[in-house]
């Protein structure tokens, strides 16, 4: 399959899935229920939605600030506004091409601050590792808080043959090991470039362990995820029907909603649908759940569109001397 075709499929298929989930979410509603959704949108308290947007903005700024702790050990101290706009651009790119934001972020900081792409990308990979640790801690917290619910949503859906899964995993590891040795020993220019890229990547990841201000980095990592949860939590007060929900319920919605971002571009269609289904467990009507999911998703998506769009415009202007 040609590279352009693969790239197109990676972009189009998630969009199609998102469109299908939007249809799936709305097709079950009668005209009367759709009118109820419109009314709930109209009557929502948008002060809380605005607070959610502000918290989302703070989380992005904290991510940009945290990045400097990893770039400094490599000998680079980019301007903060370039760090921030590179992050904003990454989120915007992810809306169009899933998981391409990390590459665009590294490319942006390389273009405007001369940070080598491989090293910048290595720091971003290290970031994702740190984020994954916190995310797993949130899952564990939710697991102990509501074991039966987690069991129903996740554990019962795991394929019942762990031996087969383990065997497939070992085979894949074996193949990866053979490929790794082939690349390591090859003298062909293409494989030499791969080795150089991997070396830079590893150097970037190592900064996670060599940075001077580890505790500051850890603090900002937890702060980012606290803001992520909080920006969803405050939306419950936008609707009278959800204002009684506790943090435990929102934590479940947050975990399930985060999974949805891996399936479609920026969670389009998937995020509102998953939130709607999760809220059903807490006896929240589907119409309110749909409104809640769509408002939570739309508000943060608008934030990304605005910040990312402005960043595309301002980056060459603020760096016009380059």
Automatic annotation (TrEMBL):
Localization, UniProt: Cell membrane
Transmembrane helix in keyword set: yes
Sequence intervals crossing the membrane: 46-64, 132-150, 162-183, 217-239, 251-274, 294-318
Pfam families in UniProt: LPG_synthase_TM
Main subcellular localisation: membrane
Membrane topology: Multi-pass membrane protein
Keywords: Cell membrane, Membrane, Transmembrane, Transmembrane helix
InterPro entries (UniProt xref): L-PG_synthase/AglD
PANTHER family xrefs: UPF0104 MEMBRANE PROTEIN MJ1595
UniProt protein name: Lysylphosphatidylglycerol synthase TM region
UniProt organism field: Wenyingzhuangia heitensis
